[in-house]
Amino acid sequence: MIYRSMYGVPTWKVRSPFYELDRMQRQMDRLLDAFDGQRSGSISAGVFPPINLSEDQENYVVRAELPGIEADKLEIQATGKSLSLSGERKIAEQDNGVRYHRREREGGTFSRVITLPGDIDSEKIDAELANGILTIKIAKAEAAKPKQITVRH
Amino acid sequence: MAATDNKELKVREKQELAHPAEQTRPGVIFTPSVDIFETDSEITLLADMPGVLPDNLTIDLRDNTLTLEGDIAAVDADKEELIYTEYATGRYYRQFTLSEVIDQAKIDAQIQDGVLKLSLPKVAKATPRKIAVRAA
């Protein structure tokens, strides 16, 4: 590598043969960090479907995007603190005569267990599938609900 | 199709639009996954757009450019607090260039269970006309 020294005279600098590799590695790391930063707060369990979990005073709410899945192809079970969600997504087969330009949508089966952060009342679970979004409302067990405590005076 | 029936679905990160035009509205924009296939008479497009209601979907065909734009209905979750998120929500946007001439009057679009089905019938080709030359 030729570096210009301060006085404009080119000089050779001897560097470790791994210098360039090290530098590339550092750049890659930085690049990957930048990508991670974009997906701030998202943690993927690596299992389909990705879910969003939220809570209010009374319920836990699990949401998942399941476009093109019929309600009767979904199975939801609750045991203890966990909720299992399984089903199948069918992609309608086209006739042999068709020619594809794009084929990005995928069909298949899925099955996932979601462990909720607190105890639930498995009798009070409400699931709704609308516009391709599944919303499961799970009532918290009495013990898990926040209690308002009045301070006597 | 028996083999693919038992295939397990894998998680796929939603594709964020790589180079959106400059936006005036805040929010993330995603590219919907699509299937596009054609027969001799029409082109069909299927797009996964979960959360998009028919009223919030704009389909525009102009100069061979088909634009899909879907707005998602806001989730009624004012009092809810997010514990964790694995997917983000946002608008959908995707553009296609069509090579065939489409019969605009017969375009049909319907959205069901978050999947858009768009039928684009091709214009019937002008039948070739033979011109007979008369002898003078």
List keywords for this structure.
heterodimer; A: 153 residues; mainly beta; Immunoglobulin-like; four-stranded antiparallel β-sheet; three-stranded antiparallel β-sheet; 1 helix; 10 strands; 13% helix; 42% strand; flat; B: 136 residues; five-stranded mixed β-sheet; 3% helix; elongated
Please give the structural blueprint.
The complex is a heterodimer of chains A (153) and B (136).
Chain A: E1 2-4, E2 10-12, H1 19-38, E3 51-55, E4 59-65, E5 74-79, E6 82-89, E7 99-103, E8 108-115, E9 120-130, E10 133-140
Chain B: H1 2-5, E1 15-16, E2 29-31, E3 34-38, E4 42-48, E5 52-62, E6 65-72, E7 81-85, E8 91-97, E9 108-112, E10 115-121
Parallel strand pairs in B: 2-8
Antiparallel strand pairs in B: 1-2, 3-4, 4-10, 5-6, 6-8, 9-10
Explained architecture:
The complex is a heterodimer of chains A (153) and B (136). Chain A has 153 residues and is mostly beta strands. Chain A folds into 2 domains: 2-38, no CATH class; 51-92 and 107-144, Immunoglobulin-like (Sandwich). Chain A contains 1 helix and 10 strands; from the N terminus they run E-E-H-E-E-E-E-E-E-E-E. The radius of gyration of chain A is 27 Å and the shape is flat. The termini of chain A are far apart. Mean pLDDT of chain A is 82; it is low at 37-41. With 136 residues, chain B is mostly beta strands. Chain B has a single domain (13-121), classed as Immunoglobulin-like, CATH 2.60.40.790. Chain B has 1 helix and 10 strands; from the N terminus they run αββββββββββ. Chain B has one helix at residues 2-5; strands at residues 15-16, 29-31, 34-38, 42-48, 52-62, 65-72, 81-85, 91-97, 108-112, 115-121. In chain B, the strands form 2 sheets. In chain B, strands 1-2-8-6-5 form a 5-stranded mixed beta sheet, with no helix packed on it. Chain B has a 4-stranded antiparallel beta sheet with strand order 3-4-10-9, with no helix packed on it. In chain B, strand 5 (52-62) and strand 6 form a beta hairpin. The radius of gyration of chain B is 21 Å and the shape is elongated. The mean pLDDT of chain B is 84. At the A-B interface, strand 3, strand 4, strand 7 and strand 8 of A face strand 3, strand 4 and strand 7 of B. Strand 3 (51-55) of chain A pairs antiparallel with strand 7 (81-85) of chain B, so a sheet runs across the interface.
